[in-house]
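[DERIVE STRUCTURE TOKENS]
===
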Amino acid sequence: MAGRVSVGASALLLESRVGSLIRDCRYRYPKVQISPRQLVISRARESVRDGETDLALVHGDFSATPEPPSSGIVVEELPPLKVVPVSSIALAHAADQAKALASVRVLAVDPDCASHQVLVGALRELYGIDPQVIEAGSVGGARELARSGYGIAMLPAESVRPAEEGSGLAVIPGLPRVHLGVRALWAGQDMAMSAVAAVCDVAARLGREQAGQMA
């Protein structure tokens, strides 16, 4: 197996799964080169259709719309991604949680992902808070803003280290954890024996392993 595969991934998947995907593919398929890039979820189909990416890895409900058979795009279900509400340690462990959350902001990593809206709904229902939503622009930006106490971000559970490991972050108790559907999009069944299909297979296997570790 040899070739080059351009992999576009939504921000959360780029952070949590693409690094492992590259390492595993280098071991299993040393002649396959992976070129990663961040992908806006709403442009996943267009990106594959136009040949900008060979394989798109996206999450959330937006990617669940069925493709017509004539499109030539194959959509494969991959193991889901668990995201959790993350903030500074001080905010997460506050004695008076309602008071600590009163002026909190919700940090949106990807505007196409509904997880931050789930968080907004939970804060409104549980604490009567109508928080401001701030677009963080990236997982790294959301993590830094959460660490500083600026707000709460929904981040991949597999990428959040325990507070005792010095990350400066903690998962807030009592707020929802969300499992987001993950899908791979690529162009056509005629590529079933290609490097693209091999990379997709590795992505599915890694997703199953990580989901099992988080169970």
The chain is about 35% helix and 30% strand. The mean pLDDT is 83. Residues 195-214 form the longest helix (20 residues).
